[in-house]
# Entry
Amino acid sequence: MKRVSFQGERGAYSEAASLSFFGNEIEAIPCFTFADVLKNTENDVSDYSILPVENSLEGSVGESNDLLLSTDLNVIGEIYYRIHHCLIGTGSIGDIDTVYSHPQALGQCRQFIQENSLKTIPSYDTAGSVKIIKDLNKDSIACIASRNAAEIFGVAVIQEGIENNTNNYTRFLVFSKEKNDKTENSKTSIIFSVKHEAGALYQIIKEFHQYKINLTKIESRPNKNTPWEYNFYVDFEGHQDDSSIKDMLKKLRDNSTFLKILGSYPIAKLD
# Structure
């Protein structure tokens, strides 16, 4: 049975994404932090890790992306998981003045929160927020999480579908010590940095054009060691073992100050 580490309590969206990716025959291992998730796999406590890296409404999950710089694990898969948020609690909508949830979920439900003049309290996990409000047992306090989390902890769903937009998807990456075999429809993820000088980024981007490689994502994140310099997170179509991509990656390495290949993996479809 595959052992899969995820962040949060039972009923977390990360656990649901794990089940969707691997199927029901897994041992799902809850962890308190994103760093703990990766450490479990690095230390052979689990075979795989799964982390949320970006959301279609709120953008990147910063903590997860920062951890990609330091882990030695390989990205071996991705999944886009549809997020349905529920307001969960013991009272009615008119009783509630405060809502708990993970900061990403609070952002994804910002419109509902503002319309109902609710105070927000960030928590470490959506499913964990259900556990918190169950223990508090106050009609004035609710949380935002999945219906599954509500059922696991035995707390009522007050209202469903409270996210800002129905096109609410979170992209998760799956990690392992092993690398993927080459497949036809692959995507590769890398991180690189360049000198802080004119034209440095262009020298990298032009290689994708010259090799006719399609970029599917490019994003910058602050370099924590050097203020106002950045690491660039890039996804592109193709496998790192393709001959043309091997050649391009060599040129990228020559023109960058840092290059890390996170892994190549099958391209996921948006359901």
User: Anything to note?
Assistant: The chain is about 30% helix and 35% strand. The first helix runs from residue 13 to 22. The radius of gyration is 20 Å. The chain has three domains: 2-83+168-176, 86-160, 186-266.
